[in-house]
Amino acid sequence: MTENLKKKNVFEKIKENIDDKDEQLAFISVVVRLIVVAWSGFIVSLNYVSLPGYSNEPKDITFPASILTATLSSFGVDASRGKSQKAKDSASKSDAVTTQILRIEQAPIKVITDNTNK
Asked: For 37-91, what is each residue's pLDDT tens digit?
């Protein structure tokens, strides 16, 4: 009866409920990432919220913001950019891409290039 009254820690409860080791590690990974998202989101939010007894001077939130962005991207959440930025990116990529057409004929092999840009 004393065995049933023994308190179990978090890892023992996870072992009890999830049998597969890979699933246990995946569950722990998700929990840790959620804790990191909550922490970094809280730190970033403190910069924009005024609390009594807490100084309102702006702080450097670069590190927590980058952690928040990286952790959210591990869940598949991606920050969207405006349409104008996407248009600029696609225009610069199309300018940077060059193509070369190679025509190979049989014996003897000749390499002929076409200088037209498409």
From this structure: 999 999 888 888 887 887 777 788 889 989 998 888 888 887 666 555 655 666 5
Q: Are 40 and 65 in contact (CB under 8 A)?
A: yes
Q: Where are the alpha helices (DSSP H) in the chain?
A: 2-5, 10-17, 21-46, 62-74, 83-96
Which pTM does this prediction carry? Answer: 0.55
Residue 49 φ/ψ, nearest 5 degrees: -110, 140
How many Cβ atoms are within 10 Å of 18's Cβ, its own excluded? 15
Cis peptide before 108 (omega within 30 of 0): yes
What whole-number distance in Å separates Cα of residue 54 and Cα of residue 76? 34
